[in-house]
Amino acid sequence: MALVGPLSRALSERLSRCRLLVVGAGGIGCELLKNLVLAGFRDIEVMDLDTIDVSNLNRQFLFQKKHVGKSKAQVAKESALKFCPEARIAAHHDSIMNPGYNVEFFRQFTLVMNALDNRAARNHVNRMCLAADIPLIESGTAGYLGQVTVIKKGVTECYECQPKPSQKTFPGCTIRNTPSEPIHCIVWAKYLFNQLFGEEDADQEVSPDTADPEAAWELSDAAARAGASNEDGGIKRISTKDWARSTGYDPVKIFNKLFRDDIKYLLTMDQLWRKRKAPVPLDWVDVEKFASNLRMHIFSMNMKSKFDVKSMAGNIIPAIATTNAVIAGLIVLEGLKILSGNLEQCRTIFLNKQPNPRKKLLVPCTLDPPNPSCYVCSIKPEVTVKLNTQKVSIQVLQDRVKQCVL
Amino acid sequence: LRGSRVLLVGLKGLGAEVAKNLILAGVKALTLLDHQQATSEDARSQFLIPTSSLGRNRAEASVERAQNLNPMVEVKVDTENIKDKTQEFLAQYDAVCLTCCPRDVMVRIDQFCRSRNIKFFAGDVFGYHGYMFSDLGEHKFVEEKQKVVKVGPGEEDGPKAKKVKIDPNETTLIKKVPECGD
């Protein structure tokens, strides 16, 4: 049998003709793009709405310091092309949830691979791939843990067939600019403590994120603003730690920066507040509570008990480069199975922190068939709603469903 | 990690991945050692070597992209054959990682590393298959375990008092020493 490396000639040719969509050019995305290009894929579209931050550089190895502020998708494409100039890579500095990426857009691909970091985008891509009937390889990492799975309409469970526990890690712009849940504020307070009294960590910035993609009218704006703030000649951002030290750790100055001036700055990013309740800055004279409760107050949220705060603060998981590398490798292997026509060989694979009783770190599980009453992918979608029939009329229920406020 | 000097032997596909991971992690110094030239096979798996550098020594061809991954790591090049290296040379490292090495070389170097408590790693890939081996000698490591919350002394005796509770939110780090054959 003719071989191209470890691949059969037939598979190798299929790879080079396969049209691939990679959603996300971050931790998993960089490793994945490298793997795809070296494996022989030649037609790839990569999409990411984000720009490069200095905290990304320890693991998103396609990016260097000189790229900070630029589009992740664009720089990832340029770096990957260096390994393989013959590959055709199209980069989109955009959100996959943009309605322009409709079912027709998805249908042009042979395979879609997610390299995302949030639930909303994953749900969206899941639904688009079901609608277009394109196989999707889903993946995720958190610290040392990772997972890869394959989603194919009618054959396997979709991403939403089983209820998922609430999201545990959050993008930096949520923590720094637009918290909406108590946990975002608790994470912020933990970062703040580290920034003031612990070791400097670019992954744990607390000041407003000027490169927030959502804050810009055009995504190119965010890139320009982030780029500007990195250049010399005016707005050079000084780290929270250095600034605090320069004030001699003056509590009034620190308070006014964190809870008044930074909030006022966030208010100038008016795009963020078009659909959200705007934050209300505080003054030093209002101070009496702990940092996390203060922030919750600013963003109009319910307070959390001290016990809840402590338990949530423990759940902060740093990103680890090699976890992403392993998962990206597994994604390609699953992709090869699909392209060889061996969908039944695909598995959900878990990467664990400790070996199991059989001494395995990587644990494959057969894929489950679709949930027959899944409200997303089944032919007869079903949802169970509990309500008090004494208090809620059918009219009210109908109105609420129409307004999507169930 | 930040004080470690590491020797990496063999800069084919596997070596490139190891180099990337070590450099991103931020070791103090990494020496790339390889006596062979880059071939067209390397173009399919070795992303540190520019496609224009075929025919060049693999370690030399890899050093620029490797260094760019993390300017804070001292990335060095050695174009000699690991077979010809002295014990003195090996003794300067805290950890040694061998790829593309024949068995007799790996055994000899492992024996020496073990005697000096230098951490030893070896591995290789063959198409879809590969292996990794590590010899870490005598060492301590930590494992994260769920914290056990014991019932306080003021509790009444009874079946409930004898149950030990596990606090799902707290974990603790326990120091361990491996046993041979673990």
TrEMBL record, chain A:
<dbReference type="InterPro" id="IPR035985">
    <property type="entry name" value="Ubiquitin-activating_enz"/>
</dbReference>
<keyword id="KW-0547">Nucleotide-binding</keyword>
<dbReference type="GO" id="GO:0005524">
    <property type="term" value="F:ATP binding"/>
</dbReference>
<dbReference type="GO" id="GO:0031510">
    <property type="term" value="C:SUMO activating enzyme complex"/>
</dbReference>
<dbReference type="Pfam" id="PF00899">
    <property type="entry name" value="ThiF"/>
</dbReference>
<dbReference type="InterPro" id="IPR023318">
    <property type="entry name" value="Ub_act_enz_dom_a_sf"/>
</dbReference>
<keyword id="KW-0067">ATP-binding</keyword>
<feature type="domain" description="THIF-type NAD/FAD binding fold">
    <location>
        <begin position="9"/>
        <end position="374"/>
    </location>
</feature>
<dbReference type="InterPro" id="IPR045886">
    <property type="entry name" value="ThiF/MoeB/HesA"/>
</dbReference>
<dbReference type="GO" id="GO:0019948">
    <property type="term" value="F:SUMO activating enzyme activity"/>
</dbReference>
<dbReference type="GO" id="GO:0016925">
    <property type="term" value="P:protein sumoylation"/>
</dbReference>
<keyword id="KW-0833">Ubl conjugation pathway</keyword>
<protein>
    <recommendedName>
        <fullName>THIF-type NAD/FAD binding fold domain-containing protein</fullName>
    </recommendedName>
</protein>
<dbReference type="InterPro" id="IPR000594">
    <property type="entry name" value="ThiF_NAD_FAD-bd"/>
</dbReference>
<dbReference type="InterPro" id="IPR033127">
    <property type="entry name" value="UBQ-activ_enz_E1_Cys_AS"/>
</dbReference>
<dbReference type="GO" id="GO:0005737">
    <property type="term" value="C:cytoplasm"/>
</dbReference>
<feature type="active site" description="Glycyl thioester intermediate">
    <location>
        <position position="173"/>
    </location>
</feature>
<comment type="pathway">
    <text>Protein modification.</text>
</comment>
Automatic annotation (TrEMBL), chain B:
<dbReference type="InterPro" id="IPR000594">
    <property type="entry name" value="ThiF_NAD_FAD-bd"/>
</dbReference>
<dbReference type="GO" id="GO:0019948">
    <property type="term" value="F:SUMO activating enzyme activity"/>
</dbReference>
<keyword id="KW-0539">Nucleus</keyword>
<dbReference type="InterPro" id="IPR035985">
    <property type="entry name" value="Ubiquitin-activating_enz"/>
</dbReference>
<comment type="pathway">
    <text>Protein modification; protein sumoylation.</text>
</comment>
<dbReference type="GO" id="GO:0016925">
    <property type="term" value="P:protein sumoylation"/>
</dbReference>
<comment type="subunit">
    <text>Heterodimer of SAE1 and UBA2/SAE2. The heterodimer corresponds to the two domains that are encoded on a single polypeptide chain in ubiquitin-activating enzyme E1. Interacts with UBE2I.</text>
</comment>
<keyword id="KW-0833">Ubl conjugation pathway</keyword>
<dbReference type="InterPro" id="IPR000011">
    <property type="entry name" value="UBQ/SUMO-activ_enz_E1-like"/>
</dbReference>
<dbReference type="InterPro" id="IPR045886">
    <property type="entry name" value="ThiF/MoeB/HesA"/>
</dbReference>
<comment type="similarity">
    <text>Belongs to the ubiquitin-activating E1 family.</text>
</comment>
<dbReference type="GO" id="GO:0031510">
    <property type="term" value="C:SUMO activating enzyme complex"/>
</dbReference>
<dbReference type="Pfam" id="PF00899">
    <property type="entry name" value="ThiF"/>
</dbReference>
<feature type="domain" description="THIF-type NAD/FAD binding fold">
    <location>
        <begin position="1"/>
        <end position="133"/>
    </location>
</feature>
<protein>
    <recommendedName>
        <fullName>SUMO-activating enzyme subunit 1</fullName>
    </recommendedName>
</protein>
<dbReference type="GO" id="GO:0005737">
    <property type="term" value="C:cytoplasm"/>
</dbReference>
